[in-house]
Amino acid sequence: MAVTGPAELLATWEAGLALQDGGRALLLHRAARPEAGTDALLSVPAGERAADLFALRHALFGARMQVKLACADPECGAAMEFELDAAELGAVRPRVPEEDLRVAEGGWSVVFRLPSVVDLGEVASAAADAADARRLLGARCVLTAVRDGRTATEAECAWLPEAVLKRFAEAAEEADPGAEVTLNIACPECGATTPAELDIATYLWTELDAWARDVLLDVHLLASAYGWSEPEILALSPLRRRYYLELCADV
Question: What does pTM read for this prediction?
Answer without folding.
Answer: 0.89
